[in-house]
Design brief:
It contains 11 helices and no strands. By secondary structure, it is mainly alpha-helical.
Length: about 220
């Protein structure tokens, strides 16, 4: 939380007093990237938020190199958000795979990386689990695409660049933070409500029947 939200905001407002606005935006993007790389090296797994952060930083470098228009630079994070949100929504289309099965929502693909066999068991045996992952995919897809639309309005409507930058920074981190919190709360409420069914599914899938519950962080 500190590296991804607090550090960039504090660093931006400190650095912008001594350098250009574009340079301040670039420098403030460094802490989240460093943290994403650190967690990847530690866990050998790049989380979805880490992907967003790294892609956003790369987009920042490319845009900063191509133009000195600060307003365009302000949209770089949201362009990445729009792309990722579109990926979420695309997986919800009624498209079938080569095997004839309906495409799984992106949240399922992300959760299955930690324990594919167990996630597959829960998906095939528990209708509410399928609904949960579908709902979370809608949440992230709509939330991230809506952030782009709102950011575009801010950049085009607010005349003062500094004010537009301030609002844009707060908006991006507020949306991401809100999506994370909603994702956790929705998952926690649903999992607690169906804890008994999870134990039955686990007991069926595992010979020892340890009945471990769904980890909220995996979804």
């Amino acid at each position: 939380m500190f590296c991804n939200i607090v550090a960039p905001i504090v660093l931006y407002y400190v650095v912008k007093e001594y350098t250009s606005l574009i340079a301040a935006i670039l420098i403030s993007s460094i802490p989240p990237v460093v943290y994403a790389v650190y967690t990847f090296l530690l866990d050998r797994r790049l989380e979805f938020t880490g992907c967003i952060i790294i892609l956003s930083f790369v987009a920042t470098l490319i845009v900063a190199k191509a133009t000195d228009n600060v307003r365009i630079l302000l949209l770089k994070d949201s362009i990445v958000m729009l792309f990722m949100g579109s990926c979420f929504l695309f997986t919800l289309l009624p498209i079938r795979t080569k095997d004839g099965e309906r495409r799984r929502p992106l949240i399922f693909t992300m959760a299955a990386k930690s324990d594919p066999e167990r996630q597959e068991t829960l998906w095939t045996t528990l209708p509410w689990f399928r609904s949960l992952l579908t709902t979370l995919t809608w949440l992230w897809g709509l939330g991230m695409t809506a952030e782009f639309a709102a950011k575009l309005v801010v950049v085009l409507v607010i005349e003062d660049v500094n004010t537009a930058t301030d609002v844009s920074n707060v908006m991006t981190y507020a949306v991401l933070g809100g999506l994370v919190v909603l994702n956790y709360l929705i998952t926690a409420v649903v999992v607690l409500r169906h804890r008994g069914e999870i134990k039955v599914a686990d007991a069926t899938d595992n010979d020892d029947g340890d009945g471990r519950g769904v980890n909220v962080q995996e979804v």
